[in-house]
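Researcher: Please predict.
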Amino acid sequence: MTPKLLRVLKGERLAVPPVWLMRQAGRYLPEYRALRAEKGGFLDLATDPESAAEVTLQPIRRFGFDGAILFSDILMVPWALGQDLSFGAGEGPVLSPALVDHALDRLMRVPERLDPVYETVRRVAAELSPETTFLGFAGSPWTVATYMVAGHGSRDQGETRRFAYRDPAAFRHIVEAIVDLTVEYLAKQIDCGVQAVQLFDSWAGSLSPAQFEQWVIAPNARIIATLKERHPDTPVIGFPKGAGGKLAAYANETGADAIGLDETVDPVWANAILSAGVPVQGNLDPLALVTGGPTLDAAIDRVLAAFPHRPHVFNLGHGILQDTPIAHVEQLLARVRG
């Protein structure tokens, strides 16, 4: 029997939408915090297949979500392309050398750094029940490139945006390298057991319309088209956070099977401008989940009401926050499932 989430991603509308939450395996769970304390750093945890598989499965055991998403990080691709990756305590990730002043071709690629991820996928796939869809993922090229160029995250991705304007040929070379490895990475995740994949473009909203076409739509379209040649039946969820008015163009031009909506998108508007039958995912505000109570119920109801005839996967508009009470996740599931 095809699991509910996979059915919706392939275009079927269900009366009760399937549910999973971005970052559902993470710091809001006491069992995750205990394992993280035992393992130490994030990268040590993510590259230990036994531990990463356990983290992936923790929210499924606790909540019975309809989807399990691989526990890993979007920066595994630049790590495999040869940059050093570290996660300082209480700090964001750091990649070195930063490509703003270091040529990509001077890096020594280390594709075997991805091997633990594939082993994690095999372990999770062997343990998941048939009712639960297994989701893999990768970062989209623009978002991954912002970290590779600057060496770290930023509020406005200004350093990378300047780099892309100043030297579009060099930036295109970086994006093409990310595209090529991302196709291989996702294809291997599918080979090892994931049933659908998501492309996270967390910083898509920082670009002008022309740059959005060049650095978000075109690279994602190439990834999806090439991946579909190998795995035509595997759904791809595109999540262009902050796309705003470019959402319809993204949906129409990338070839994504389903579209993730961030919390700033009016779901009624999205339902009106997206082609009929295109599945959507989202888009509860993570802060409404933190708040709980009647505020949460009302926010859930607004999202549910926005898609009366469209295939819909209930999710957050971005990742679950670490101060989210467990009881509020339980409230969400009870409300959505009725």
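Model: Strands lie at 67-69, 84-87, 93-96, 133-139, 196-201, 236-240, 258-260, 280-284, 312-316.
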